[in-house]
Specification:
Number of strands: 2
Number of domains: 1
Order of helices and strands: HHHHHHHEEHHHH
Helix content: over 70%
Length: 321
């Protein structure tokens, strides 16, 4: 439903829609083309036989480490919603519901793409069924995404500062890291002065206290570190750079993948990481990236779909009773 607006001239009521639809279709096709092109670039010099052998040679210890780090990453993502629900809908939702919404929403969004839309849609399905209002759902989702972004910014800042002593341009990295840390510190200080809230298009979004905001940033930084570490432990030893350098490059690759609007940034992320590590044509690097996709994206996605189906089924049973 749309708000009433000024009358349109005859024949123009639906004029902008086809153009907008055509633009969206064009952007989707361009994103798909970029993804396919990136995958072709990645797999051009790697045969399927080499890839299969490299996958089979991946040490079990590294795969187990990736599984543990993936679980830790999604535990942090779930905690974002737990804290967000405490701020935006205190006492209105059970902790286990908030944890489930955070974990499943993030798992779906990481794989499907369009994070703000897909992740919020999953949260809405869970929270609305739990009795929250649409406004409360929007507030929890907004706080979750803001916390995730602040955590990634904190991780990137620490990585830049750590790189300053190991690169030829220390002041550039130190300046970027210090600027980000100063911005985060200023934001936390602003939260600490008084109870804050943002008003966007007439909707009020309560902001957390400085203490809770600091906790959220730390959770976000830990989530970013574990997600990056889940891929780092799979890398071939001769291609693995220092973790700080890899972390900064990985965050940039994730942003490029998100900007491409391909599902999970597929193709763009892998091509970016291959260019960063200088591993084009290396079957062991492609195997590491593929295993990371399977463990960090597809496994949580499958578990999230099952969890949502079971949750919906249990809700139907309760409604019938």
């Amino acid at each position: 439903m749309t708000a009433p607006g000024p009358a349109r001239a005859p024949g123009s009521a639906h004029g902008p829609r086809p153009a907008g639809g055509a633009r969206r279709l064009l952007l989707a096709l361009l994103a798909l083309a970029a993804s396919v092109g990136a995958l072709v670039f990645l797999l051009k010099d790697v045969s399927l036989r080499e890839l299969a052998l490299a996958m089979a040679r991946q040490p079990t210890r590294q795969i187990l480490a990736t599984l543990v780090l993936t679980a830790a990453s999604f535990a942090c993502l779930a905690c974002h919603d737990l804290v967000g629900a405490r701020v935006a809908a205190r006492g209105r939702v059970r902790p286990r519901i908030a944890l489930m919404a955070g974990a499943t929403g993030s798992a779906i969004a990481n794989t499907v793409g369009f994070h703000a839309l897909s992740g919020t849609a999953v949260r809405a399905r869970i929270y609305l069924a739990a009795g929250l209002t649409a406004a409360e759902v929007a507030r929890i989702a907004s706080l979750s995404w803001l916390s995730l972004g602040a955590g990634n910014a904190a991780m990137f800042a620490v990585a830049e500062v750590a790189q300053a002593s190991a690169t030829a341009h220390p002041m550039r990295h130190l300046g970027i890291g210090a600027a980000l840390l100063l911005a985060l510190s200023t934001l936390l200080a602003w939260f600490g002065r008084a109870r804050r809230e943002l008003v966007v298009f007439g909707h009020r979004f309560p902001m957390p206290s400085a203490r809770i905001a600091f906790v959220q940033v730390m959770i976000g930084a830990l989530e970013s570190a574990t997600a990056i570490g889940a891929l780092y432990v799979l890398l071939p030893p001769d291609l693995a750079p220092p973790f700080s350098l890899f972390a900064a490059g990985c965050i940039v690759a994730v942003l490029l993948g998100a900007a491409a609007h391909t599902p999970g940034g597929i193709g763009v992320f892998e091509a970016s990481m291959t260019a960063l590590l200088g591993g084009r044509g290396r079957a062991d690097l492609v195997a590491a990236l593929l295993l990371y996709r399977l463990i960090y994206n597809l496994l949580p996605f499958a578990l999230a779909v099952v969890a949502l189906a079971l949750h919906a089924g249990s809700g139907t049973v309760r409604w019938r009773r």
